[in-house]
Amino acid sequence: MRVLGVSGSPTKDSNTDALIKAVLSTTGAETEFIKLSEIKVGPCIACMKCVYTNECVINDDFKWLSRKVMEADAIVVGSPTYYGSASAFMKAFIERLYSKRHIKLLMRGKLAATVAVGVAAEKMVAEWMGNSLRAGGMEIVGSMTAKGTPCCFVCGPGETCDYTVWNAYSKELTGMDLGVGEAYKEYLEILPDNVPYAHGSAKFLKSYRSVKDEPPVMAEAERIGKLIRERE
Question: Is Flavoprotein among this UniProt entry's keywords (predicted)?
Answer without folding.
Answer: yes
